[in-house]
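Quick one, tokens below:
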């Protein structure tokens, strides 16, 4: 994959991981089966968009961290947020995707994704 021009941010929280039927329907706000398929969803499902520049990278990382703080990982002791953020920052500095899917302490399934755009196989939800 080539480096992103920008990232689209997607967030979803539910009582359980969505079933595969919902995951293949682009009109559903749930996480898809493949990361790139977030871009197939209507733009109304985009939480935010961040440009690939120093300010955008910093803002994207803060967006991911805010989600991790709001929905604490069920195994926070074994993989703390600051350790997870190291990977997120490395991924987005390289222009790659950063994706989380986990169960929170309150047993919600949490999905947060920064999806690199554009891609060869997917068009931008905003036509950028």
């Amino acid at each position: 994959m080539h480096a992103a021009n920008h990232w689209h941010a997607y967030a979803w929280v539910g009582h359980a991981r969505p079933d595969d039927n919902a995951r293949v329907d682009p009109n559903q706000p749930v996480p898809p089966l493949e990361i790139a398929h977030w871009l197939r969803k209507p733009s109304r499902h985009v939480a935010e968009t961040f440009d690939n520049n120093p300010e955008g990278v910093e803002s994207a990382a803060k967006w991911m961290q805010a989600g991790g703080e709001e929905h604490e990982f069920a195994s926070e002791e074994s993989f703390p947020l600051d350790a997870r953020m190291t990977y997120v920052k490395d991924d987005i500095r390289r222009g790659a995707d950063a994706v989380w899917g986990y169960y929170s302490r309150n047993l919600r399934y949490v999905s947060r994704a920064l999806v690199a755009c554009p891609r060869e196989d997917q068009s931008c939800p905003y036509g950028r």
